[in-house]
Design a protein that fits this description.
A hairpin with a 3-residue loop joins strand 7 and strand 8. This protein has an 8-stranded antiparallel beta barrel. It contains 4 helices and 9 strands; from the N terminus they run βαββββαβββαβα.
Length: 177
């Protein structure tokens, strides 16, 4: 699958959630997510075309393993994600493959949907509040969805000047350095 995502900093989550409800968007209960991000080289973690990140995510009682490969566009990647049965074994497995733990991202996440677009409402430890608008398409689908996602943002009252062109892991890593 191909994931196209736009992320925006949110100053007031209550205002955003009320706007989503006005647009008839159902909002999930809060889920706790704890992510450990793995890379091949701790000296080369820059987000560039071809970069690969692996992630072990614990979301309440569910554990997922995720592969992301950066495309030419900054907030677009090839993605493979599947559930695994053990958080500890998933981490051991990635280390055995030679991947190194890089950063941990802890957040409270709520899910929603607007038409065919997925919405994640995040409160990220050390970073603050964000909204992600995304669409998943077949990796052979080469259509550019950025303008459509920006239109959805405007419809939902999201300030386009608050757009963030970085990943949570990168932002946390920059705080650590």
């Amino acid at each position: 699958m191909r994931e196209i995502e736009l992320k925006f900093k949110v100053d007031n989550l209550d205002v955003l959630i009320n706007k989503l409800k006005e647009e008839q968007c159902e909002i999930s209960a809060v889920k706790m997510q704890n992510d450990t991000i793995y890379v091949q080289n701790l000296d080369d973690t820059e987000s560039k075309e071809g970069s690969v990140w692996l992630r072990v995510r614990k979301e309440n009682d569910k554990i997922e393993l995720n592969y992301k490969k950066q495309s030419k566009k900054k907030m677009e990647s090839e993605e493979i994600e599947f559930e695994v049965s053990s958080y500890e074994l998933a981490n051991q497995f990635l280390k055995a493959l030679g991947y190194l733990p890089w950063v941990e991202v802890n957040k409270k996440r709520r899910y929603s949907k607007y038409k065919e677009y997925n919405i994640c409402i995040d409160e990220v430890e050390r970073l603050g509040s964000f909204i992600e608008l995304e669409i998943l398409v077949d990796k052979d689908n080469k259509e550019d969805y950025e303008l459509a996602l920006l239109e959805v943002a405007k419809k939902l009252g999201i300030n386009p000047d608050k757009r963030i062109n970085s990943h949570y892991d990168t932002m946390i890593s920059e705080l650590n350095n």
